[in-house]
Amino acid sequence: MNFEFSDEQNLLREQALGFLQEHCPMSAVRAVLDGDAAYDTDLWTKIAELGWTATAIPEQHGGLGLSYLELSVIAEELGRAVAPVPFSSSVYLATEAILMAGSDAQKERWLPKLATGDAIGTFALGEGPGQPSPQRLATTARKGKLTGEKIPVVDGDIADLAVVVAKADDGDGASLHLVDLAGVERTPVATLDPTRSHARIVFEDTPAEPLGTDGEGWSLTQRLLDRAAVLFAWEQAGGANAALEMAKDYAMERYAFGRPIASYQAIKHKLAHAYVKNTLARSNGYYGAWALDSDAAELPLAAATARVSATQAYYYASKENIQTHGGMGFTWEFDCQFHYRRAKLLSVNIGSEPSWQDKLIAAVERDAA
Amino acid sequence: MDFNDTAEEAAFRAEAKAWLEANVPTREELGGLDDIQAAKLWQKRKYDAGWACIRWPEEYGGRGASAIEQVIWNQEEGQFAVPGSVFGIGQGMAAPTLMAWASEEHKRKHLPPLASGEHIWCQLFSEPAGGSDLAALRTRAERDGDEWVINGQKIWTSGAHYSDYGIIVLRTDPNVPKHKGLSYFFLDMKSPGIEVRPIKQISGGANFNEVYFTDVRVPDDQRLGAVGQGWQVAITTLMNERAAIGGGGGGVGFKQVFDLARKVEIDGEPAIRDKNVRAKLATWYAQEAGLRFTGYRSMTALSRGATPGPENSIGKLVGASKTQDMASFAMDLLELSGAVSDPAYAEAHGAYQATFMGSPGGRIAGGSDEIMLNILSERVLGMPQDVRVDKGIPFNEVPTGR
Question: Are A56 and A68 in contact (CB under 8 A)?
Fold first, then answer.
C-alpha cells in the first residue's frame, strides 16, 4: 500500500505553500476584489516562472513532464490561497483538452505558450442557465467558422484561446473547436466571485479549428470534465481547510461570556464536522489523483467521488466560517467572504453538486451492469 | 501512488491467506455450537497455529507482528465467514492495559488465555451516574488489609453474563477531586457478591448488562497502577476502545441500498432514476469511499513504520450516523412495507428495520457522537476544553442531578 504523496511531492507542497503565503496573501486577493484588474498578473507571471503552468505538459511540448500528483499538490495550495489567477481554466481545462484531443500541429502551436503562461486558455461550454447538453447547444460550426454566444466563460475576458463546445449534426451531437480569441467580441460579466473574471463571448463567423473528431465533442467534454474535476476537487479541498483554519483561529481569539468561543461545543462541534468533511474530501482526492495519474478505468467514478466530497466540504467550511465569525464575518472588511464566494464559484464552474452526484451514480451503475 | 503490497507484505498476505483457506472452520465443524463455543473454537485454532493476537509479543501468546501485518491479517480474515469474536474487549482493551500496567507475573498468567480465547473479559467502566462523564463514577472500593471491598453498580457492560474477568475503575477516595480519587483493578467475574442483570435494548436484544456489586472482594494485587492513578490507567483502555470499536458501519451500506433502489419503483420507474435518490446515494457513497481511502492513508503510514495521523478517528462518527440514515432511507424506499420487520415478509429479512432500531446504539457506544466531536475539536484541532464546574472540587461536594 502506497497511498500517499512522495517526499518530493510533499516538498513541492511546502514550497508552494511558502510561495503563496508570500506572494498571494489575502491582501492580494482583496486587491483584485476591490480593483479593476481581472486577475493578479504579477502572481500569474511568478507562477508561470515557477513552472506550475507547465507541470503536466510533456517535455517535448515545453512542459516539465511531471505527473498529475504534482498538479494535485499545486491545485490544493492554489485553492488554499484563493489565488486570483486563471489557473484552472488554462491548465485543467484548455491545456488538458489540447493534450487529449489536439493534433500535433495544435499541440506544437499552443502547448509551449500555455506552458510558459504566455497564453491563457479557457473552456467555453455554457450557454445560459441550466445544465448544458448537446440538444441545448446553439453555437454552430460551419466550414471553419464559429457562430454563437457563450456565457459565462470563466476567464473568457482575459484568455488568448478558447476550447469551444459547438453543436454537431452527427455522432454525439457536439464537437470541440480551438479558437484564437484575438479580435473576438468579449464582455466581462460580473459574478459572485470578482476574484475570478468571467465573460460573455459572441462568435460571428469566427475562424475556428476542429479539436478532435467532429461528433465526438460531447464524450471528449465528459472526459475532460472528469479529469478537471479531480484538480478542481483539490482546489476545493485546499480552500475548505483554509476556511476551517480561519474559523478556528478566530474562535480561539474571540472571547464571549468570559472565555474563548472556541471552548463552546456549539462552535467546536461545527468545526469538528468541518474537519470530518475535509478529511473525507482529501482522502477521496487521493483516489481521484491516483485515477487521473494512472489513467485508470475508475476515473469517472473517482473524479465524481472526489468532486462531490470536496464541493460539500468547501461549502460547509466556507459558510460556517462566516457563522463562527458572527457579524464581523458578514462585513466586507473581513476575509471570510473570499472562501464563501470561491466555494460556490468552484462548485458550479464545471457542473453542480447534483450534476456530479448524478454522474457518480451513473458510474456505479455502469460498473454494476 | 499504488495499492500494492511491498514484497514482505505480499509474502505475509499469501501466508495468512493460505493458512486461512486450510483452517477456517467448516459449517459441519460449527454445527450445534452456540456463538460463544464457535468463537472459542476458532480462536483456539488460530492460537495454536500462531495467528491469534499477532501483534502481541510471543511470550504472551502473539507472534510479534507489525501493525501493517495486523491490518493485512484483518483484511484476509475478513474475506472468510468466520465465527464472530466475543474477545474484542478483552483482547482489544483489557490486554493493552495489562501490557502497560500489570506485573510481569500477571501478564504471563492472563495474556495467553486471552489470546487463546480460553478467557473472555468485560469492561466495567460506565455507571448510571457516569457515562460520557466517566470520572463521575461512584462505585466504591474500600481497603480491608490486602483486599478491597466493592459496593455499587456498573451499567452497559457488554458480555458481563459470559465473561470470566473484568477490568474496573472504582472510587477509592471521594474526598479529592473526581479524577484523583479513582483506582483501577481487574477481577474475577465469578467473585461472590456480583450480580449480572441483562438490559433489554430497543432493538430487542440484550447484549449488555447492569452489574451489581455487594461486598465484592478483590485482592490489592489485582490493582493496576497506584491508588488514585485509576484515571490515567483508564485512558490507556479508552485509547484502545475507539480502535476496537472502529468502523461503526455494519448492517446497511451503500451497495445494499443502491441495489434496493434499482428494484423498487418511484412514479412507475426504478427509484434509482429519481434525482433525489441519486443525490442521497452519491453522498453516502462518497462518505464510504472517503472512509476507505482514509484507511488506506493510515495503512500507508503503518507500512512505512510511521504512526497514522488523527484522520482515522472519524470512522465511527461518520459510519454510525450514515448507517442510521441509510436504514431510514431504505425503509422510505419500501413505502408501506418499510414498517414490516417480519422476516417472512420483510425485504432483506428485516435487515433494514433491525439496523434502524440498532443504529442509535452505534452513535452512543464507545464514545457518543458528541464526545467524538469534542475529541476531534480538542485533540486534533487544538480547541480548548469546555469549562468544568466540578474542576478542583472534592468529589463528594460536586453537585449531582437525579
Answer: yes
B121-240 has which CATH code? Answer: 2.40.110.10
The answer to whether the pTM exceeds 0.90 is yes
Residues β-bridged to residue B186? B167
Fold of A218-368: Butyryl-CoA Dehydrogenase, subunit A; domain 3 (1.20.140)
> Taking the domain B246-366, which CATH number applies?
1.20.140.10
Q: Is B28 a catalytic residue?
A: no
Among the partner residues B5, B311, B387, nearest to A263 by beta-carbon distance: B387
Distance, CA of A345 to CA of B70 (rounded, Å): 44
CATH classification code of A121-213? 2.40.110.10
* Cβ contact, residue pair B285, A305, below 8 Å: yes
Q: Are B204 and B252 in contact (CB under 8 A)?
A: no
- Among candidates B265, B167, B273, B277, which has minimal Cα distance to B211? B167
Nearest to residue B332, comparing CAs of B361, B356, B363, B349? B356
- Domain(s) of CATH 1.20.140.10: residues in chain A: 218-368
B384 with A263: Cβ contact below 8 A: yes
The radius of gyration of chain B's CA atoms, rounded to the nearest angstrom, is 23
Choose, from B76, B241, B288, B347, the residue flagged as catalytic.
Answer: B241
Indicate if the pLDDT at residue A354 is higher than 90. Answer: yes
Q: Which of A247, A225, A209, A238 is nearest to A334 (CA)?
A: A247
Portion 326-355 of A in contact with B at CB < 8 A: 353-354
Q: CATH 2.40.110.10: which residues of chain A?
A: 121-213
Q: For residue B247, what pLDDT is reported?
A: 39
pLDDT tens digits for range B146-161: 999 999 999 999 999 9
Put simply, the answer to whether B290 touches A252 (Cβ < 8 Å) is no
User: Among 1.10.260.40, 3.40.50.2000, 1.10.10.10, 1.10.540.10, what is the CATH number of A7-116?
Assistant: 1.10.540.10
Question: How much is the ipTM here?
Answer: 0.96
Chain B residues whose CB is inside 8 A of the A356 CB are 282
The answer to whether the CB of A341 falls within 8 A of the CB of B267 is no
